[in-house]
Design brief:
The protein has 164 residues and is α+β, with helices and mostly antiparallel strands. The chain has one domain: Pnp Oxidase, Chain A. The protein is 32% helix and 38% strand. The chain contains five helices and ten strands. The strands form two sheets. It has a six-stranded antiparallel β-sheet with strand order 1-10-7-6-2-3. Strands 4-5-9-8 form a four-stranded antiparallel β-sheet, with helices on both faces.
Length: 164
């Protein structure tokens, strides 16, 4: 099968999964479709605002209506979120010439507590993402890891899909 045929087959599966016809004009996604894309994704883009906008790719999980992230305890993104917790988070998927995108807005809650770390690693493990090096650290080890857990309850969510 040629590369073009494989691409068309993937695109047709994408449209068949959405139940919507191919169109150059973007079509809005339902909340359920948006949450489905968030649940499937593993990487997204965190948008923060301060003196200047800042966007950074991050691994994440979506669970219980929240986006969960983790990062080091310092740096630009943590400082920006502490100054202004209003964020956006974007996830997308591409299949051939078909695309889908979801944007979430919310307020980041940052924590370095052992309980937050334990919860986030448990959720990451349940989603097949594992811990550092594929291992889930013990609670005692988590307490020692310098890390900030980001919990972002979804306030607004919107999505679109279309074709190139």
């Amino acid at each position: 099968m040629s590369q073009v045929s494989k691409s068309r087959n993937r695109a047709n599966k994408f449209i068949a999964a959405s139940g919507k016809p191919s169109s150059m004009k973007p079509i809005g996604l339902s909340r359920e479709e948006c949450e489905s894309l968030l649940s499937r994704g593993r990487y997204g883009r965190l948008g923060l605002c301060g003196d200047h906008p800042y966007v950074v790719p991050m691994s994440y999980v979506f669970a219980d209506g929240c986006i969960f992230l983790h990062s080091g305890p310092g740096g630009r993104k943590v400082q920006m979120a502490m100054s202004n917790p209003n964020i956006c988070f974007e996830v997308d998927e591409l299949c051939g010439q078909q695309w889908r995108s979801v944007i979430v807005t919310g307020q980041a809650k940052l924590s370095d507590s052992s309980e937050s770390k334990d919860r986030m690693f448990r959720i990451f493990s349940e989603r097949g993402m594992g811990g550092h090096g594929g291992q889930v650290p013990s609670r005692e080890m988590l307490a020692k890891i310098p890390m900030v857990i980001w919990e972002i309850p979804v306030q607004e969510i919107s999505g679109r899909e279309g074709a190139w």
